[in-house]
Design brief:
There is one protein chain. The protein is mostly beta strands. The chain folds into two domains: 63 residues; 311 residues, 7 Propeller (Methylamine Dehydrogenase, Chain H). The chain is built from one helix and 29 strands. A hairpin with a 4-residue loop joins strand 6 and strand 7. This is YNCE-like beta-propeller domain-containing protein.
Length: 417
């Protein structure tokens, strides 16, 4: 508020004149005050507008930040579940973290006996066979479906897939599929991918009916194992009989890269990606180690020796270690991802031929088939102690420990994310 004061005049005036002068002076003062108030109001309005603009800018910045946080850190393959942790592709595989789909399934170990044409079903609590299921000719692997609801037995020479309901343990009607040596699923669940080893094909099929959608011929020999990139946009495939690797575009369903491994007589087997998604590991049973590959660059890999006949690769529940089965010497090497080196080696008592398998849901037991010894090994993942040696059928191969933690399956004996 402006205070108005009329100054004293020393000029003598008549009484009426003095009143008029005071009034004139008062009016002038009031006009001056009003002008001052108008300026102050204008400035206040400008300050208000500036404040409102600042608030709007802050709100817009906050909304943009929220949108940024909501946006997936990894732009994955279209339709693929979001990557939970860009630094750990196995973040969904923690001990006991079972999907609601499988939480009521009984815990079992399903062992395909390649030469007996059966699947031995083991109760992991008692280490006893509780059932033997007849299947097709030469079953190679037992593979969990993408939606976790079915186990598919790959009857390689029988040219069929036998479905097993893991809730009941009962086998269903076989589905005709030619040369199904191994089976994978794209990360978005859109396709099953049959590794037709002798046909020299990657066959993309409907994941439920197994009807053929597209066939990608390959020039290498013995396509058999694979794993997908962190974003699911490509996968690396091993070609066992020609010692080669393939890089396949998942969405286009086409081979986009191919290379010969730099080892005479190389025989690549299982494939696994590192937790951070930066490297792929490929076991090689003739090079007696595993190749370390930058999948994005797909340049020449380096060899890390592990043991004679390196074959299967299995990541622990804490994503810190990976177990490498050395089939030719009856041992398991333990690889530390953080240290980037082997830290332990466990030898099976009385030897053996550890091949393919998986880790128990709680992460405490590594299960492996004894390919040439008609047995299955249960190994303590903390001490390396052999917990059990269970006789099964002839030629046990890609056994599946089921159920396991994870939101969905990429196939093989259980690659979960």
């Amino acid at each position: 508020m402006v205070r108005v004061t009329t100054p004293s005049l020393l000029i003598p005036r008549a009484p009426g004149q003095r009143v008029l002068v005071r009034r004139a002076l008062l009016a002038a003062a009031l006009l001056s005050a009003v002008a001052a108030c108008g300026t102050e109001a204008k400035e206040q309005a400008e300050r208000t507008r500036a404040s409102q603009a600042a608030v709007k800018a802050a709100e817009a910045a906050e909304a943009a930040e929220r949108k940024k946080k909501q946006r997936p850190a990894v732009q994955g393959l279209h339709g693929m579940p979001p990557v939970l942790d860009p630094k750990d592709v196995y973040a969904a595989d923690r001990p006991g973290k079972l999907s609601p789909v499988v939480k009521d399934f009984p815990s079992r170990v399903y062992v395909p006996n390649t030469e007996s044409d059966t699947v031995s079903v083991i109760d992991p609590k008692t280490y006893e066979i509780i059932e033997t299921i007849p299947v097709g000719r030469q079953p190679q692997h037992v593979v969990p479906s993408w939606d976790l609801k079915t186990l598919w037995v790959n009857n390689n020479r029988g040219h069929t897939l036998t479905p097993i309901d893991p809730r009941t343990g009962k086998a269903g009607k076989p589905v005709e599929v030619h040369d199904p040596y191994n089976l994978y699923f794209t990360p978005n669940g859109k396709y099953a991918v049959v590794m037709a080893s002798l046909d020299r094909e990657l066959v993309f099929r409907d994941p439920h009916t197994m009807k053929r959608v597209r066939t990608e011929p390959v020039t290498c020999y013995g396509v058999n194992h694979a794993d997908f990139s962190l974003d699911g946009r490509y996968f690396i495939v091993s070609c066992e009989f020609s010692g080669e690797l393939l890089k396949v575009d998942t969405e286009k369903m086409k081979v986009v890269g191919q290379q010969k491994l730099p080892f005479d007589g190389a025989m690549p087997q299982d494939v696994k990606i590192s937790p951070d998604g930066k490297r792929f590991y490929i076991a090689d049973m003739m090079a007696d180690g595993m190749w370390v590959l930058d999948g994005d660059k797909f340049d020449t890999p380096t060899l890390l020796p592990t043991g004679k006949g390196a074959h299967g690769l299995y990541v622990g529940r804490d994503s810190r270690e990976m177990y490498v089965s050395n089939r030719g010497e009856g041992s398991v090497s333990v690889f530390d991802f953080t240290k980037n080196k082997l830290t332990k080696k466990w030898h099976l008592p009385d030897g053996g031929s550890p091949d393919m398998g998986g880790v128990s849901a709680d992460g405490k037991v590594l299960w492996l088939s004894g390919r040439y010894d008609s047995e299955v090994y249960a190994i303590d993942t903390r001490s390396g102690e052999q917990l059990a040696r269970i006789p099964v059928g002839s030629g046990p191969h890609g056994l599946a420990v089921y159920p396991q933690p994870g939101r969905y399956s990429l196939g093989h004996t259980g690659i979960f994310r």
